[in-house]
Structures are given as structure tokens and as C-alpha cells.
């Protein structure tokens, strides 16, 4: 997340910070130009909740850290089939996020010519879980990640950046208007040692981009602490603090 903020603000502010961050900025921009949607796919991974329903059969969840960064996000999941001896549990979920905080950039005088800023995503998923014993369960699922990346900073870049070499590099990524639809799958395991607590690990794969990722989540009655691992991302480890409200339908 820090690299995303550095990227956006380093592109758009004219100040001595360029001299201090130039090397880091060039590497970040090179990665961004090569595959800009990777940055926003990471946001989607961090905000979605496609783990099984554990004790209550439904829940609403939000990534509280991302709310602080201006990324509104909400996940809802519900059990559609209860587990018994013959059938596994099936959980359906829908997750959505919107990067509304970027809209505030146009209130800054130097960025007033930025336009068409619209970045969002959503992801429906279906998860199958089967208990091994009272504490351990295994799960697997499939999801479809859908998102849109839209912004136009070209006028800002032309007027505010004096370095021609930096300007040439930035102009390649200062305009985006793309929609992505990417299927994925995941497997994992969960441990429920006691009431209102659980530990879960998930390993996922994104087909089109051929990306592996992993998550580990420790949960209690209302809060989850987690860590996302994205080996090919600029930021490899992503901490997560989720607020979740569980209930039965």
C-alpha cells in the first residue's frame, strides 16, 4: 500500500522529494507500467473475504486499514448449504471495494487537472468446506475478480514535471482506462481451537496473470489479524486488520 501512495504522490507533486526518491520511484514506475492492474489486484486480494463461514452461517466484513487509506470495502458471505455426513458446506460471498480517496486529489491545486479517476473492483466466490475433525477443516473454492482502473493525469504530468526523462516514463502510465475480468481458485485449511476463534491459511492462483498468493488469518469474535503474501508484487507482505460481524440467517 505504501508503494501505491508513493507512486501516486511522487508522480503528482513537484518538490525536492524527487531527488530523494528517484531510484525507488523509477523502479516502482517500471513495475507499474509493465502491469498496472497488479497494484489494484493486490487491493482486491486484501479486501475480499472468501474463507468459509465458520460458526455463524453469515458475516459482513471490512478491511479497517484500507478504510483509513480511502478505500471503501465490504464483504458479505453466507452459507448456502450446511455440512453433513454426505455433503460439504458451501459458502457464497461477494466482495467489493472503491478507491474513493483518489477523488480528493483533484482538490489539491497542483492536481486540479487530473480527471476520470475511477478505480474499483468486486469479486464473487464460492467455497466448499469439509471437516476432518471437530477442529480441523479443509476448503477449496473459485472466484472471479472484476475491476476497473481509470484515471487521466496526462495534463498534470505535462505541466508539473520538468525532468524530460522522468516525464517520458510517467506519461506511459499517467492514463489508464481498463477493465479486467480474472478467474482464480484457492485451497486452504482452517483450525477452530475454541469458540469465537479460528486460524486459517489460504493459497490462491490467478489464472490469466499466473500469480500465486497466500493469506493467513487469525480471527476472534469481531476482529481478524492477517497477512497477505504476494511473491511477485512490489510490496510482498500486506498486513490486514479486519472488522467482521457474524450472524445467522
Helix fraction bin: 10-25%
Strand order of the largest sheet: 1-2-3-4-5-6-7-8-9-10
**Alpha carbon gyration radius:** 20 Å
Total discrete domains: 1
> In angstroms, what separates the terminal alpha carbons?
35 Å
Q: Provide the structure class.
A: alpha+beta
Q: List low-pLDDT spans.
A: 1-22
Number of DSSP-assigned strands: 10
The overall pLDDT average reads 83
The rough form would be described as: elongated
Query: What is the helix tally?
Result: 6
The main pleated sheet reads as: 10 strands, antiparallel, barrel
Amount of beta strand: over 45%
Descriptive account of the structure:
The protein has helices at 2-12, 17-34, 37-47, 64-68, 154-160, 164-171, and strands at 58-63, 72-81, 89-98, 115-131, 136-152, 175-194, 197-206, 211-219, 223-229, 237-247. By secondary structure, the protein is α+β, with helices and mostly antiparallel strands. The chain has one domain (2-247). The longest helix has 18 residues, at 17-34. Mean pLDDT is 83; it is low at 1-22.
Amino acid at each position: 500500500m505504501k508503494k501505491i501512495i508513493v507512486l501516486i504522490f511522487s508522480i503528482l507533486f513537484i518538490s525536492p522529494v524527487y531527488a530523494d526518491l528517484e531510484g525507488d520511484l523509477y523502479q516502482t514506475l517500471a513495475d507499474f507500467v509493465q502491469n498496472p492492474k497488479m497494484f489494484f489486484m493486490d487491493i482486491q486480494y486484501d479486501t475480499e473475504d472468501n474463507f468459509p463461514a465458520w460458526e455463524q452461517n453469515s458475516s459482513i466484513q471490512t478491511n479497517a486499514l484500507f478504510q483509513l487509506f480511502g478505500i471503501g470495502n465490504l464483504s458479505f458471505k453466507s452459507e448456502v448449504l450446511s455440512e453433513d455426513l454426505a455433503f460439504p458446506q458451501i459458502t457464497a460471498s461477494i466482495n467489493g471495494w472503491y478507491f474513493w480517496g483518489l477523488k480528493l486529489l483533484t482538490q489539491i491545486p497542483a492536481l486540479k487537472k487530473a480527471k476520470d479517476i475511477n478505480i474499483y473492483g468486486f469479486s464473487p466466490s464460492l467455497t466448499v468446506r469439509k471437516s476432518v475433525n471437530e477442529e480441523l477443516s479443509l476448503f477449496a473454492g473459485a472466484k472471479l475478480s472484476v475491476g476497473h482502473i481509470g484515471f487521466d493525469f496526462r495534463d498534470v504530468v505535462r505541466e508539473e514535471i520538468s525532468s524530460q526523462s522522468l516525464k517520458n516514463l510517467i506519461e506511459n502510465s499517467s492514463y489508464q482506462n481498463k477493465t479486467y475480468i480474472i478467474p482464480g481458485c484457492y485451497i486452504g485449511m482452517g483450525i477452530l481451537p475454541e469458540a469465537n476463534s479460528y486460524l486459517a491459511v489460504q493459497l490462491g492462483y490467478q489464472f490469466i496473470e499466473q500469480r500465486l498468493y497466500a493469506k493467513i488469518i487469525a480471527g476472534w469474535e469481531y476482529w481478524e489479524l492477517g497477512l497477505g503474501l504476494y511473491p511477485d508484487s512490489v510490496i510482498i507482505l500486506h498486513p490486514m486488520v479486519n472488522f467482521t460481524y457474524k450472524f445467522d440467517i
